Amino acid sequence: MDVTDPVQARAESPARAWLRHRPAGLLPDALLALAITGFAQADLAFHLDNSTPYGPMPAVVVSTLVATSILALRRVTPLATAVIVAVAIAGPMLATPLTVTLWGDFLPILVATYSVARHSVSARAFIGVAAVGAGLVVVFLRNPESGTVGNIPFVAVPLAVCFVAGRVLRARARSHSDDRARARQLEAEREEAIRVALADERARIARELHDIVAHCVSVMVVQAGAAEDLLDRDPQKARAPLRSIQETGRQAVGELGRMLGLLRGERAQLELKPQPGTADLAELVDHMGTIGLPVELAVEGSARPLPPGLDLTVYRIVQEALTNVLKHAAPTTAHVRLHYDDQSVRVSIRDSGRTGGPGGADTDRVGHGLIGMRERVGLYGGSLETAGTPGGGFTVTAQLPLEAGQR
Q1: pLDDT tens track for 362-382
Q2: 1-15 in b/e burial notation, b at 16+ Cβ within 10 A?
Q3: Cβ atoms within 10 A of the Cβ of 356, count?
Q4: For residue 94, what is the DSSP state?
Q5: What DSSP string runs through 322-386?
Q6: Where in this chain does the record put each Histidine kinase domain (predicted)?
């Protein structure tokens, strides 16, 4: 069994670490350079392309070896590769003419030209091809066999083809990369939109849960207090508030189950009731009256069907305001006024409870309920005003534009 010493693993040599994290494409390029080097050296040894020998053979071998082996770095450092190939082939020519071969000189020049065009930005690509061109000029001037007019097209055309092919393939790769980047950006924007939509939906469900729980718990607390007062004096009458507590509790559990079912994605398995609206305000007012909060409801203007979201918002504002009256005001009455006009619907809830003191109807009522109201009203571009009334009590007024609800 092979057991690696952690100390040895931490003391890994830089060479091994570089091999593990080597740039992509290095191994194929190294194999390519090795193959070209082998063919180039075999060409020199056996005169495979019938090139005319010039200069000392050791200098030709070293020049060819450098020009072909550096191709292993053609993608890692394409500009340096092109410059080294040009210098390795043309540099010794300045001292003495050397043999020029297909595998050892011309093929490395073409590979270096393509590589610098394919893997470098425009400025570096042109610098690289200029270095290669300068090297070829030196070769043409110093090597008698190469320096003929007939060889110019034979060298220039493949060189131009390699350079153009490199630039075209680079442009296509950049285009595909940009397309992938745009696709990733669109995917990220879509996921962000989904996250925002989920956050908005959770906030909406949180508001619904708050309204449901706050209303039901407040009603149950009031009824429990009433039942406690009646237990000693008239146990029979205590049954009515206890039954109301049971009914309200069942209603709260049902509503919570419905909302949690939506959160769990069980919409298809639930028998959902329609969301309440302005048509259910009379039932809400009657219910509040049975638990000890007399409420007067007045409708002004021409009543009309409202868009579902706006209809629910009006109902929830009235429900939350009356729940706050139960929780915070002294024994009192409440007045709900619903006013329709051509541009908006306005709802006002006013109670006559005393202000100040524990349980009083003061401005300290501002909490999650009123925050939720403001969010609901703001969603439809409306306005919400809350204030104490002269002589005691508290007023909540919301105005909602009908155009926003329809939109």
Answers
A1: 444 445 667 778 888 888 889
A2: eeeeeeeeeeeeeee
A3: 12
A4: G
A5: HHHHHHHSPS--EEEEEEE-SSEEEEEEEE-PPPSSTT---GGG-SHHHHHHHHHHHHTT-EEEE
A6: 314-404
Q: How far apart are CA 321 and CA 368, in angstroms?
A: 12
Distance from C-alpha of 341 to C-alpha of 358, rounded to nearest angstrom = 39
Taking residue 379's Cβ as centre, other Cβ atoms within 10 Å add up to 18
Neighbours of 61 (CB within 10 A): 16
What per-residue confidence (pLDDT) applies to 181? 87
How far is the C-alpha of 362 from the C-alpha of 176, rounded, in Å? Answer: 65
> Which among 230, 256, 233, 255 has a CA at the least distance from the CA of 243?
230
Cβ pair 284, 322 in contact under 8 A: yes
Q: Is 118 exposed, middle or buried (0-12, 13-18, 19+ CB in 10 A)?
A: buried
Q: Which range, of 24-38, 260-274, 387-401, averages the lowest pLDDT? A: 260-274
And the tokens for 300? 């002004």
Counting every residue, how long is the chain? Answer: 407
In contact, 228 and 213? CB cutoff 8 Å = no
Q: Are the C-beta atoms of 295 and 324 separated by less than 8 Å?
A: no
Mean pLDDT of 163-186: 91
Would you state the torsion angle of the CA atoms of residues 9, 14, 15, 19, taken in this order, to the nearest 10 degrees?
A: 70
Q: Closest Cα partner for 385 from 337, 347, 335, 342?
A: 347
First to last CA, the chain: 72
Burial of 262 (0-12, 13-18, 19+ CB in 10 A): middle
**Tens digit of pLDDT for each residue in 265-290?**
554 444 455 678 889 999 999 888 88
Q: Exposed/middle/buried for 307, CB within 10 Å: 0-12, 13-18, 19+?
A: middle
